[in-house]
């Protein structure tokens, strides 16, 4: 019984990896940094590049969480660019608050 479960688990893992790898098939994915902030741009591999679409995540998000949106938008001939904002998802630099007297999530 354990062997059957192990084989089923390996098949499930293989199918998951295959599905994830297939999501970006036909797209050109470019990773870069702008001012120390990682930015990934998706665009169709063939055809002229379309307009850039900046994708911003919520407070606790990251560019990896926005990848499904980027893949879907890239299929429409746009160039989505999800990024990870400072102070979230391992980017150590904090965002600055709008007011120097303000404290909260964006100021220590």
Can you describe this structure?
- The protein has a domain at 26-82.
- Helix content is 28%, strand content 22%.
- It contains two helices and four strands; from the N terminus they run H-E-E-E-H-E.
- The protein has helices at 2-23, 67-74, and strands at 27-34, 37-44, 52-55, 79-82.
- Strand 1 and strand 2 (37-44) form a beta hairpin.
- The longest helix is centred in the first third of the chain and has 22 residues, at 2-23.
- The termini are far apart.
> Helix- and strand-based class?
alpha+beta
Task: Give the averaged pLDDT, no decimals.
Answer: 75
Overall spatial form: extended
- β content, as a range? 15-25%
- H-E string: HEEEHE
Brief sketch in words of this structure:
This protein is of the alpha+beta class and 108 residues long. 28% of the residues lie in helices and 22% in strands.
Write the layout of secondary structure elements.
Layout: H1 2-23, E1 27-34, E2 37-44, E3 52-55, H2 67-74, E4 79-82
Parallel strand pairs: 3-4
Antiparallel strand pairs: 1-2
Please describe the structure with a list of short key phrases separated by commas or semicolons:
4 strands, 22% strand, alpha+beta, 108 residues, two-stranded antiparallel ribbon, 28% helix
């Amino acid at each position: 019984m354990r062997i059957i479960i192990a084989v089923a688990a390996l098949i499930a893992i293989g199918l998951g990896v295959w599905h994830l790898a297939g999501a970006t098939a036909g797209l050109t994915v470019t990773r870069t940094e702008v001012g120390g902030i990682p930015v990934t741009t998706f665009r169709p591999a063939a055809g002229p590049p379309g307009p850039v679409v900046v994708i911003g995540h919520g407070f606790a998000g990251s560019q990896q969480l926005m990848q499904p949106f980027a893949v879907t938008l890239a299929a429409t001939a746009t160039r989505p660019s999800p990024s990870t904002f400072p102070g979230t998802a391992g980017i150590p630099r904090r965002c600055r608050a709008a007011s120097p007297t303000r404290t909260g999530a964006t100021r220590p």
